[in-house]
Specification:
Blueprint lengths: L13 E7 L2 E2 L5 E2 L6 H10 E8 L14 E5 L4 H10 L3 E4 L16 E6 L7 H10 L3 E4 L1 E2 L5 E5 L5 E4 L3
Parallel strand pairs: 1-4, 4-10
Antiparallel strand pairs: 2-3, 3-9, 5-7, 5-8, 6-7, 10-11
């Protein structure tokens, strides 16, 4: 297809980034990180002139956090204090573990993932974003606010709906 393979070191600006999402609301705010790579994915999305999320209809929600937890990548020594911050924000936090290994999931950066569940959804995503960005011990989190330029919702019949910011 003639698409060159490069790195952000060589080409720090991308024309387009395409990626999936675990949840998306009508304001094109996303939750990503089911695979634990949200920190790297956020770097790529931020460097792109256009960031398009590709989802199926089950990923569309009225309120972020109703079906999928917000992953928070933390220093192992900060997991308990960060979980306290999440509880104060109304979440039920849980250290992510895997059946494939004994102990917590370890990211490519050597950090742990805490999943923050919000049974009634996240009341104020921007406030949670700020709170987590200011919390020592948090590398990053799976809230992608004001990043997606477009969302394509693919349907089983091959059709797609295009969503853009209002």
């Amino acid at each position: 297809y003639g698409i060159p393979l490069t790195s952000l070191d060589d080409d720090p600006t991308l024309d387009l980034a395409l990626d999936g999402a675990d949840e998306v609301d009508d304001a094109l705010r996303l939750i990503k990180g089911g695979g634990g790579a949200h920190s790297r994915e956020k770097v790529v999305a931020r460097q792109a002139d256009q960031f398009v999320a590709l989802v199926d209809p089950t990923k569309k929600v009225d309120r972020l956090g109703t079906h999928f937890p917000v992953p928070v990548e933390v220093l192992p020594m900060a997991a308990t204090p960060v979980m306290g911050t999440l509880e104060d924000a109304g979440a039920t936090p849980e250290l992510r573990t895997s059946d494939a290994k004994d102990g917590p999931v370890v990211t490519d950066q050597g950090l742990w993932v805490v999943d923050a569940r919000f049974p009634k959804g996240i009341p104020a995503p921007a406030d949670l974003d700020c709170r987590l960005n200011e919390r020592p011990g948090v590398l990053d989190h799976g809230l992608f606010l004001n990043m997606a330029t477009d969302v394509l919702v693919g349907h089983p019949d091959g059709s797609a709906d295009h969503c853009s910011p209002s």
